[in-house]
Amino acid sequence: MSERPKLKLELTTFDKMLEILGWASILAIWGLTIINYSNLPDTIPIHYNGAGQADGFGGKKTILTLPLIATVLFIGMTILNKFPHIFNYPTNITQDNALRQYTNATRLIRYLKFIIVIIFGLIAFKTIQNPNGQADGLGVWFLPMTLGLIFIPMTYYIIKTLKTKQ
Asked: What is the pTM assigned to this prediction?
């Protein structure tokens, strides 16, 4: 593999907005979890099946894993996004196409990390609602929505990457 160009990417307004929304969502999921922690019963749902029904239960401390995992993934992807020259691309990266390819790839990562936080936030929200009787599982809509929010944009960005080979 030849040495790929290392470029400093300028964030667009949309990119900055996604970053701000992502960090705000991290704070929101932590706030939601901490504020509601003392009201949770000792046993809460910790796993849901494909239909969105709770099928595993554990101690209420496990609710803290949701914002923790979301935060670790978000920060990890934020750090990774600083190095687009190490990503895998479906096309050869040249000096001519590096800016477009890197911009496309980092925007996808930025979008995905925001969506991941939203998904973990929804799981935390529904998990907090379940013991109080305000919800029954995640809902049948949760899995298709999650898959759509992840795979539709990924497909779009991969097609966009393939179209901008040059």
From this structure: 0.89
